[in-house]
Amino acid sequence: MHEQYRTVARQGVHETEVNRSRFLCALAPAATEEEAWDFVAGVRREHPTATHNCFAYVIGADASVQKAGDDGEPGGTAGAPMLQMLLRRDVRYVVAVVTRYYGGVKLGAGGLIRAYGGAVGEALDRVGTVTRRRYRLATIIVDHQRAGKLENELRATGRTVRDVRYAEIVTMRIGLPASDIGAFRDWLADTTAGTALLELGGEAYGDI
Hints:
Blueprint: E1 4-8, E2 12-18, E3 21-29, H1 33-46, E4 52-59, E5 65-69, H2 79-88, E6 94-101, H3 108-127, E7 129-142, H4 144-156, E8 161-166, E9 170-176, H5 181-191, E10 197-206
Antiparallel strand pairs: 1-7, 2-3, 3-6, 4-5, 4-6, 7-9, 7-10, 8-9
């Protein structure tokens, strides 16, 4: 697995105009191809009278799934440059739809390639990107006496405590970078006088 990847920070739309044609680029995070297609379909429903609704998406931290569509524009002049812009910017798990309203002036193949690719690039600048890092899910098991202090110590050292549950014992769920597991075990032992247990779970991507 890749250690990290970049994706769009949020869903958003940015509009540009080229020779009286309007280009609206809608961007969204997409965890799966199904989510990407749902977003494409939603944009098409929103703009049923548009001249074209072209799309591109990249799924997988290693960009293993890549697809693009020209929606009636000359082959290779819309979806392909959109996809290339996503790849050039190193964004993953993302879908882009560029909606074009024709303004009466033909752009030619080169003009279309610049317009569609440029619309995606400008939208990425406007919406922004975030970096997701690979981490191990981990569960800390600790007694009630030390739970409050440990939670405070975790937060003070910049750890994101994802969940805390109080029962006969206290369990806390956190995320750990793989490279940090050994040092964290030592820190936990020192902080709790060796009384806390650390159980490692699966891997995921997110903000640590």
